[in-house]
Amino acid sequence: MTMHTTTNSQLTVKTTAAPGNVLKRQLDELVAYPKRDFPRTASGIYVKTHHHLVYDMDAPCWVCGIRHSTGGALETHHYRFEWAAQFGLDLGKVEADFPALTDRQKLAEWVDSEGNMLVLCAAHHRGKYTGIHEITYPAWLLQRYEGVQFQFIDQHAVPKAHTELLALGDSHPHGP
Ligand SMILES: [Zn+2]
């Protein structure tokens, strides 16, 4: 693999000119969700959660560290359970891991709360080849921890922060 590093006035960008062993695979997934009325509008809890994390706290993308204040388009990802999935969950199993979630109402409120939310930039949330909704978890995770000499996943389409950042100070240091 040949790695070139180019530097502009504000940050360093790595680009892969001649990738070596690139594994290409196509995910074929079948998941059923309980029937509900779709599309739903965002709940009041979700709107409040999103605003607090992205604008009040200016939380960084868990993968790349970009923030709203540094030019990122920050989104909030339901990282334990998607909203639609809650209706198919076994409450006893959920409560075993999350003791405070003792009924469906508490679960519904938690699903849209900060405890179930991961802040991600648009690229690391929904981007083709980079988003948690678009690639497998093992591949997606590598983007946070990759070294300076090797790039697992091409990041050329990922917006960069105005100033170089480390993904520090996030609310989920141990990840999803
Ligand atoms: Zn990101």
Describe the structure.
The protein has a domain at 38-145. It has five helices and four strands. The protein has helices at 44-56, 91-97, 104-111, 122-126, 137-145; strands at residues 2-7, 12-18, 74-78, 117-121. It has a two-stranded antiparallel sheet. The longest helix has 13 residues, at 44-56. Residues 61, 63-64, 66, 120-121, 123-124 line the site of zinc ion.
Search tags:
176 residues; alpha+beta; two-stranded antiparallel sheet; two-stranded antiparallel ribbon; 4 strands; disordered N terminus; binds zinc ion
Any idea what the shape is?
globular
- Which structural class best describes the helix and strand composition? alpha+beta
pLDDT < 50 runs, ≥5 residues:
1-18
- Total of DSSP H or I helical runs spanning 4+ residues: 5
User: What percentage of the residues does DSSP assign to strands (E)?
Assistant: 5-15%
The overall pLDDT average reads 83
Q: In which range does the helix fraction lie?
A: 10-25%
**Widest sheet: strand order?**
1-2
Please state the CA-atom Rg, rounded to the nearest Å.
18 Å
Described by strand count, sense and barrel closure, the largest sheet is: 2 strands, antiparallel
Query: What gap, in angstroms, lies between the N and C termini?
Result: 30 Å
Bound molecules: zinc ion
The SSE order reads EEHEHHEHH
Short description:
24% of the residues lie in helices and 13% in strands. By secondary structure, it is α+β, with helices and mostly antiparallel strands.
